[in-house]
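Long-time lurker, first post. I've been practising inverse folding by hand and with some scripts of my own, and I keep getting stuck on stretches where the structure tokens seem ambiguous. Below is the full token string for one chain I'm working on. Before anyone asks, I'm not after the true native sequence, just a reasonable design that respects the backbone. If someone could post their per-position residues I'd love to compare against what I wrote down in my notebook.
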């Protein structure tokens, strides 16, 4: 692998710098989405309760967020809590995750500000506990003037619910703007009514713990994303693994349904 001659951003550790040196800074993804998976298996391997895996997962969040910000990724979205998690996991685990999120937000706001990171959320926030919603609003407002990376946490999120909410939102907007006969639906209109209207579509989606599923995450937005699956369990994931995912992304040729370069060339005379 050749080493590209460019400056390594400050703050990267030795291992991260080694991987970064092989990246092309002009072709970094503009938006990376991550399905954080494997907390339960990480805990089980250590004969610990599942929640110990979630607790350990916070260090992985911290490292990944800081590294992404240091290399100037414009947007990072983390799938922290799905609508299905809420319905299918024991109440004690859900309560633990809510407390963990609240504590993370309180502890992390100064670091987010130091790294110029703006916090956003996607998902049905109004269904979360009131105190968690208040902490979320506080954290968002505390980082609202930051101009660097946008960190979006998917909380109580489901891509299908997001689409349902987008269609409802389009109908409401049409009703308020002259009536349903003025409703115009195209791809841009759908995108403008999604929770992710503040973001470009992800170029890269990372999933940890080896599972090959999208699990109802950003189904519309991931239409052309490159998929990178690593066997690393989420609590073991660090910034260096994110950089490895980006290295893999840069090896791929993105075609958006078109031809690759050699296929596109006219035949030799
Ligand atoms: C999936 O692992 C992970 C979750 C459902 C929760 C993700 C939460 C964190 C990473 C920690 C807190 C996050 C923030 C933003 C503070 P799993 O339990 O499904 O693992 P398994 O598939 O091995 O059982």
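-- Answer (accepted) --
I ran through it position by position. Result:
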């Amino acid at each position: 692998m050749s080493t590209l001659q460019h400056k390594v951003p400050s703050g990267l550790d030795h291992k991260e710098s080694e991987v970064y040196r092989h990246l092309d800074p002009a072709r970094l993804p503009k938006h990376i989405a991550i399905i954080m998976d494997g907390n339960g298996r990480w805990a089980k391997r250590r004969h610990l309760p599942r929640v110990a895996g979630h607790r350990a997962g916070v260090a992985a969040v911290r490292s990944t967020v800081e590294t992404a910000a240091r290399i100037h990724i414009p947007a990072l979205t983390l799938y922290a809590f799905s609508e299905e998690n809420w319905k299918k996991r024991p109440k004690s685990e859900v309560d633990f995750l809510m407390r963990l999120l609240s504590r993370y937000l309180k502890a992390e706001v100064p670091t987010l500000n130091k790294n110029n990171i703006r916090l956003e959320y996607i998902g049905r926030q109004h269904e979360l506990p009131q105190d968690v919603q208040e902490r979320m609003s506080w954290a968002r407002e505390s980082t609202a003037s930051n101009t660097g990376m946008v960190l979006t946490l998917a909380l109580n999120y489901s891509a299908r619910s997001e689409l349902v909410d987008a269609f409802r939102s389009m109908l409401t907007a049409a009703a308020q703007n002259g009536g349903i006969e003025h409703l115009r639906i195209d791809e841009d209109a759908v995108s403008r009514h999604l929770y992710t209207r503040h973001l470009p579509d992800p170029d890269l989606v990372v999933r940890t713990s080896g599972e090959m599923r999208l699990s109802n995450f950003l189904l519309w937005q991931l239409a052309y994303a490159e998929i990178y699956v690593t066997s690393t369990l989420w609590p073991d994931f660090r910034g260096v693994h994110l950089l490895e995912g980006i290295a893999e992304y840069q090896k791929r040729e993105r075609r958006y349904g078109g031809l690759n370069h050699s296929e596109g060339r006219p035949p030799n005379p």
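A couple of notes from the structure itself: The domain at 30-157+201-251 is CATH 3.40.1180.10 (Undecaprenyl pyrophosphate synthetase). Residues 91-114 form the longest helix (24 residues). Happy to go over any region you disagree with.
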